[in-house]
Nucleotide-binding protein-like (Riccia sorocarpa), 325 residues
Amino acid sequence: MAKQCRSLALSCLLALQSRSVIPQRKAREDAWNSLSRFSTFSRGKPGEPGRSPMSRLNIAGVESIIAVASGKGGVGKSTTAVNLAVAFALECKLRVGLLDADVYGPSVPTLMKLQGRPQLDKDSKMLPLENFGVKCMSMGFLMDKDAPAVWRGPMVMSALEKLSRGTSWGEIDVMVVDMPPGTGDAQISISQRLPLAGAVIVSTPQDLALVDARRGVNMFQKVDVPIVGIIENMSYFKCPKCGEVSDIFGHGGARSTSDEMRMEFLGEIPLNMAVRETSDEGAPIVASSPSSDVSGIYRIIARRIVAKLGEWASDGSAGPQIVVK
């Protein structure tokens, strides 16, 4: 039976690693031309004289912005960001936006089952695509499939400005930003320019991922972005046949890290085949299987995040208070 459990766990892991979330990419000129259609912004070169490269990208109508980040790729950051966004909308009854800031490998179109070019409003701003009660904007909506985005940091930030401020979001209580993985120039620039209320760090339990997670925490702290907490993704595998629990990547590493760094531990999300299947189908498990155990975990974590932001707002250390309806 133990051998069967290990086999099922391996199948689940391989399926997660082989998912086709990443392949939506774009060539530099085609993507830039798509963005330049919107009259809100000119096609000027990034960093041109007269523009402050560190000016804040305040987004009209958006109350609070939360970054969902990871120190490395492959830990389930985008899946977590999408399910948290849906949980904010469905569980917390908030008006939610989802900004896909990973211009090199945009995942939101696949995970939210959205495609097509955004329409324009009367002011030539893009109208976000919407599903599951969440308004979304992604470079993937403007890209041709499989074309690479060969952009340097300044051009990434210019594109992000168009995606964020060039979108007519309406009234948004909380915006979730799916950050690109890592701690490079683009990640630092995004963290400095977006008025982030806080950051959520996603990691798997093994030491390699946790080392990078610590780097991510340190990056946000250096740019004065408070850490909401750490989520341990793929925390354990529960065999659907016999119920035996296996620690595929170890267990408890993120909790220990949060204790060491004096941050809140937000929760454990298991390695679960249904999460992979619903993600590939573009039906986040929080919406498609609301009574499942995993959906319940995402909802609990979403409420913890909202509560944390509320605490910060009450003592004046963060942005506007978010009220769960």
